[in-house]
Amino acid sequence: MITGCWKTQAIGQGVALGLFDALANGAAASTALAHASDANADGVMRLLRALATLGLVEHLPGDRFTLTPTGALLCRDAPDSLNGMAGHWGERIWESFGRLGASVQTGEASIPSGPEHFAVMQADPAAADVFNRAMAEGSLRVGRALAGAYDFSGFSRLMDVGGGYGALLVGPLEANPALAGQVYDLPALADPAKTWLDEQGVGGRVDYLGGSFFETVPAGADCILLKFILHDWNDERCRTILRHCRDAIGAGTVLIIERIVPETVSSADKDVIRGDLVMLGVGGKERTEAEYRKLLGEAGLRTGRIASIDGNFSVIEAHATTP
Ligand SMILES: C[S@@+](CC[C@H](N)C(=O)[O-])C[C@H]1O[C@@H](n2cnc3c(N)ncnc32)[C@H](O)[C@@H]1O
Questions:
Q1: Residue 322 CA, ligand 1 centroid: distance in Å
Q2: Which residues, at least 6 apart from 80, have a Cβ–Cβ distance to it below 8 Å?
Q3: What's the predicted TM-score (pTM) here?
Q4: Ligand 1 centre from 312 Cα, in Å?
């Protein structure tokens, strides 16, 4: 536990240098990989040896390396890719955890965050690409599990509010051929989101709407999805977002997809509590069920069923108290 940071950085740097993608076509010498990634030959050799001890590449005789099945998950285009997640943890989350002490002292974010930060980050193609792919990789999996845990057959249009690339929509759309999707997020994501959704085969069924959920949420959907949105923000900002969702949804349904903090935590709760430390560093928080019920009530929403999606994520159903 004490030394675990080296793994995050070794994997993150391997991804940043494109080593896993470069090995996808077959074994290669570390000198060639260093040349292709414009990095120091000795440094790349030592990084690859570290990755070999993690089982992500295999060290062949001499200075040659080949990809392992686990390492293949770090290729950008792998079906269950974790490439974006590894880049995100190696850069932004790394920076945040390096300053965890400051957030614990003050209760404030330790790295640039807030509405302005999101707008700046999403307008920077390189930073946005890593962040949005990290989110999409997770949401693709969660959305497919959600489609198995929740019945969408009664809805006609799902709107993924703050949806990024709209990855959460893929599972419900695959399972419900008559369903249409909408992504509502900052205008800067429109083109990459469309490209990503086309690659998933659902681009023709999803519209992208650019705007800010702090100003409004467009009407037109009968189900709104909010995943990893409320955990980004303090209670006041959450109430603003939720009120806009309530105004947009009429008699429809709002679904909040988050990891819920248990009232008493045990070692089984590492995922949500790790997420909560990440949120501490950016000014958000993971919440208990009671905290979500309270927030929803304050925004004019009544909490309905709460179901476990995969033992880790939950879906909280909410309806306007006065549609
Ligand atoms: C933590 S990500 C979650 C993305 C997606 N829901 C998921 O779980 O994969 C937060 C998302 O909120 C979006 N966002 C931030 N500020 C926003 C705003 N003012 N209006 C609309 N979307 C915003 C970001 O661009 C980002 O896509």
A1: 27
A2: 73, 137, 141
A3: 0.96
A4: 20
